[in-house]
């Protein structure tokens, strides 16, 4: 599978909205069902310290990863926070790995970030496996982290420290 990575542009909002409207994507993230195109258009506008990456295959946008950094917070300048989703019909085909590899390269080799962090629901096995593959470790459990489909769900705080 030939998967390429590029920076998201504001005009990609419809494709990104579609990624986050899939039931699996909603289940694994903090998105609500029925995402609005306008809110995604605003979220993809260039913002200081935000790197929105897209995975593309067969001329389609199939995955999104947001890397949020803190260039204006001197004591948090070494940190990146990650959120991601692959379109439901493309999961398990390598797009998540390609996105995470691009984010880690950006963080390690260009932004000099030494701590990448994220939260993941404790029952999200594919995501936890992906993160462990990139040397993220579990730092703690966040009880009742979010409400999902009628019940509270716990999350792990995971981080990857570059030594
Ligand atoms: C989690 C997610 C981003 C992973 O992306 P992906 O493109 O499906 O992942 P990949 O195909 O690159 O696989 C990465 C690893 O995940 C694991 N994995 C993938 N699909 C899996 C499945 N169905 N069951 C168990 N593990 C799975 C494997 O360990 C795999 O690595 P390997 O093939 O080298 O063993 C994607 O499944 C997704 O978007 N899920 C819904 C939204 C979500 O949960 N986002 C994360 C929020 S924290």
What does this structure look like?
With 163 residues, the chain is α+β, with helices and mostly antiparallel strands. The protein has helices spanning 13-21, 23-28, 37-43, 95-110, 125-133; strands at residues 4-7, 50-57, 60-69, 79-86, 115-121, 137-148, 151-161. Strands 1-2-3-4-5-7-6 form a 7-stranded mixed beta sheet, with helices on both faces. Strand 4 (79-86), helix 4 (95-110) and strand 5 form a beta-alpha-beta unit. Helix 1 packs across helix 3. The chain is globular, with a radius of gyration of 15 Å. The structure holds coenzyme A (COA). Residues 24-25, 28-29, 84-86, 91-97, 118, 120, 124-127, 129-130, 133 line the site of coenzyme A (COA). Coenzyme A (COA) is lined by residues 24-25, 28-29, 84-86, 91-97, 118, 120, 124-127, 129-130, 133.
Summarize the structure.
It contains five helices and seven strands; from the N terminus they run E-H-H-H-E-E-E-H-E-H-E-E. By secondary structure, it is of the alpha+beta class. Strand 6 and strand 7 (151-161) form a beta hairpin.
Number of DSSP helical runs: 5
Terminal residue distance: 33 Å
Shape: globular
How confident overall, as mean pLDDT?
97
Gyration radius, in Å? 15 Å
Per DSSP E runs of 2 or more residues, the count of β-strands stands at 7
Low-confidence stretches: none
Q: What bound compounds does this protein have?
A: coenzyme A
Q: Strand-and-helix sequence, N→C?
A: EHHHEEEHEHEE
Strand content: 35-45%
> What structural category characterises the helix and strand content?
alpha+beta
> What is the topology, as strand order, of the major beta sheet?
1-2-3-4-5-7-6
Task: Please give the largest β-sheet.
Answer: 7 strands, mixed
Fraction of residues in helix: 25-40%
């Amino acid at each position: 599978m030939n998967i390429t990575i590029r920076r998201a542009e504001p005009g990609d909002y419809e494709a990104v909205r579609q990624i986050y409207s899939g039931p699996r994507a909603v289940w694994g993230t903090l998105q609500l069902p029925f995402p609005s195109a306008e809110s995604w258009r605003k979220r993809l506008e260039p913002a200081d310290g935000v790197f929105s990456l897209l995975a593309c295959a067969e001329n389609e946008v199939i995955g999104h990863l947001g890397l949020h950094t803190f260039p204006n917070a001197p004591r948090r300048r070494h940190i990146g926070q990650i959120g991601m989703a692959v379109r439901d019909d493309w999961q398990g085909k390598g797009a998540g790995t390609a996105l995470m590899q691009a984010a880690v390269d950006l963080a390690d080799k260009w932004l000099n970030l030494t701590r990448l962090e994220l939260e993941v629901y404790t029952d999200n096995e594919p995501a936890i496996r992906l993160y462990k593959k990139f040397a993220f470790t579990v730092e703690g459990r966040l009880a009742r982290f979010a409400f999902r489909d009628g019940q509270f769900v716990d999350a792990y705080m995971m981080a990857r420290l570059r030594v």
